[in-house]
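REQUEST FORM: STRUCTURE PREDICTION
Request ID: SP-0412
Submitted by: Lab K.M.
Chain count: 1
Length (residues): 127
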Amino acid sequence: MIVLGVVFFGILLLYFFYNPSSSNHFPQCPFLTATGYYCTGCGSQRALHDLLHLDIIGVAKHNLLFIPAFLLIAYHWVRSYAPVKGKESLPDLIYHPKTPMLLLIIITLFTIFRNIDLYPFTLLAPE
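STATUS: Completed
RESULT:
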């Protein structure tokens, strides 16, 4: 678990100090390269760099879905791995029988909408 934490911290340091927008050392999206269309994750590397620099507007410009995804992952981590002693853990807001279908619908619609070349859908495309 310690090794995993060190690797995770190292990756965060890499994204903090190196901007994926101006570096060729970061992987390109294979879906975008193959099809010319944006996938759900396109812009996430740049969004992570912006988030580490507390540039929320930049995060939203690169991948609007990154913000709620980050918040859900953070909530899950806090709920799962950092319980408060002597108290019940946070309520389970994520795991519901309808959650997988809801996430699939959101991700599918986001991917379709960000590839429509008309305003306001162009706002969803990464800059």
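NOTES: The mean pLDDT is 88.
Reviewed by: T.R.
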